[in-house]
C-alpha cells in the first residue's frame, strides 16, 4: 500500500510539473480562459510602435490595431521589443506567434513566414539634408546611404543602386547620422521618414524623388500559423465597423485612403 501511495504521489507531482512547464514564453492562458500571445515588435518605429518614455508602455498605430484585433478575435496580447531583423528571424523560427512592426509583405518573405491581409500601404522615400543636390534615387551612386538592417530599403539599395549602403539596427541612428553629415541620404519607409522629419528635423532634412517599391504592411506569423484566419476576420470586421478608421485618424490625422 505504501508503495502505491508513493507511486501515486510521484505521478501527481510529475503531472503538475509538466503542466507548469508546458506553457512557453510566447503563449499562455489567462484566468478568463482567453489565450495571451506575445507579439514581437519594434521599440522605435514612430508612429507605428514605440515605447512611451514616461509610462514605459508601448504605443502607436500598430499597437492600437493589434490590441483591437485581439479584442475582436478573443485573445490577449503582450509585447516583446527587438531589432527588426531579429523580429523577422523570430517569425521564421516560430519563437513568437505574432509580429507587427510595419513589416512589408514581399514574395521573398512569404516563402518563410505567413502574413495577414494588408493593413497599410507604404513605400520607400529618400531623405537628404536640406541643402543636398540629390534629387532622386538615381543620384546616390557612390554615396553613403543609410537604411535599416533587414529592411526592404536595404535590399532595394543593394539590388538597384551602386550606393555605399550603411545599415543600422535602429533607423533613428541613420537619421541622426544624416543630420550630422555622416551620411549623404537615408532610404526608408515613407510614413516613418516623413514623421521623423516633421517631429525632429523640419529645418535640416527633406524628402526627394518618387515613392519607390510600393508595398503593403502585414501582420507576420510563423509559416502556416492557425492565427492567420482569425486575425484576418477580425481585421475585416474592424474595417467594416469603423474601428480601423478611428485608429488610423488618431495616428495620422486623416481618414485612410479608400
UniProtKB/TrEMBL annotation:
<dbReference type="GO" id="GO:0030313">
    <property type="term" value="C:cell envelope"/>
</dbReference>
<protein>
    <submittedName>
        <fullName>Transporter substrate-binding domain-containing protein</fullName>
    </submittedName>
</protein>
<dbReference type="InterPro" id="IPR001320">
    <property type="entry name" value="Iontro_rcpt_C"/>
</dbReference>
<comment type="similarity">
    <text>Belongs to the bacterial solute-binding protein 3 family.</text>
</comment>
<dbReference type="GO" id="GO:0015276">
    <property type="term" value="F:ligand-gated monoatomic ion channel activity"/>
</dbReference>
<feature type="signal peptide">
    <location>
        <begin position="1"/>
        <end position="19"/>
    </location>
</feature>
<dbReference type="InterPro" id="IPR001638">
    <property type="entry name" value="Solute-binding_3/MltF_N"/>
</dbReference>
<dbReference type="InterPro" id="IPR018313">
    <property type="entry name" value="SBP_3_CS"/>
</dbReference>
<keyword id="KW-0564">Palmitate</keyword>
<feature type="domain" description="Ionotropic glutamate receptor C-terminal">
    <location>
        <begin position="36"/>
        <end position="254"/>
    </location>
</feature>
<keyword id="KW-0449">Lipoprotein</keyword>
<dbReference type="Pfam" id="PF00497">
    <property type="entry name" value="SBP_bac_3"/>
</dbReference>
<feature type="domain" description="Solute-binding protein family 3/N-terminal">
    <location>
        <begin position="36"/>
        <end position="255"/>
    </location>
</feature>
<keyword id="KW-0732">Signal</keyword>
<dbReference type="GO" id="GO:0016020">
    <property type="term" value="C:membrane"/>
</dbReference>
Amino acid at each position: 500500500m505504501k508503495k502505491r501511495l508513493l507511486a501515486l504521489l510521484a505521478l501527481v507531482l510529475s503531472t503538475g510539473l509538466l503542466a507548469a512547464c508546458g506553457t512557453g514564453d510566447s503563449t499562455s492562458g489567462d484566468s478568463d480562459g482567453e489565450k495571451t500571445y506575445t507579439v514581437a515588435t519594434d521599440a522605435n518605429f514612430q508612429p507605428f510602435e514605440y515605447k512611451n518614455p514616461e509610462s514605459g508602455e508601448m504605443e502607436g498605430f500598430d499597437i492600437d490595431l493589434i490590441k483591437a484585433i485581439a479584442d475582436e478575435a478573443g485573445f490577449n496580447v503582450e509585447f516583446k521589443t527587438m531589432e527588426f531583423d531579429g523580429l523577422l528571424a523570430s517569425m521564421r523560427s516560430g519563437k513568437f506567434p505574432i509580429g507587427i512592426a510595419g513589416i512589408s509583405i514581399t514574395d521573398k518573405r512569404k516563402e518563410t513566414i505567413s502574413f495577414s491581409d494588408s493593413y497599410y500601404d507604404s513605400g520607400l522615400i529618400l531623405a537628404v539634408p536640406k541643402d543636398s543636390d540629390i534629387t532622386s534615387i538615381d543620384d546616390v551612386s557612390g554615396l553613403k546611404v543609410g537604411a535599416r538592417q533587414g529592411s526592404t530599403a536595404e535590399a532595394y539599395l543593394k539590388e538597384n543602386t551602386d550606393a555605399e549602403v550603411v545599415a543600422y539596427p535602429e533607423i533613428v541612428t541613420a537619421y541622426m547620422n544624416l543630420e550630422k553629415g555622416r551620411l549623404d541620404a537615408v532610404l526608408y519607409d515613407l510614413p516613418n521618414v516623413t514623421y521623423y522629419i516633421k517631429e525632429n528635423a523640419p529645418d535640416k532634412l527633406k524628402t526627394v524623388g518618387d515613392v519607390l517599391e510600393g508595398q503593403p504592411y502585414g501582420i507576420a506569423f510563423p509559416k502556416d500559423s492557425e492565427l492567420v484566419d482569425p486575425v484576418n476576420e477580425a481585421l475585416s470586421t474592424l474595417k467594416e465597423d469603423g474601428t480601423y478608421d478611428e485608429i488610423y485618424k488618431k495616428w495620422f490625422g486623416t481618414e485612410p485612403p479608400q
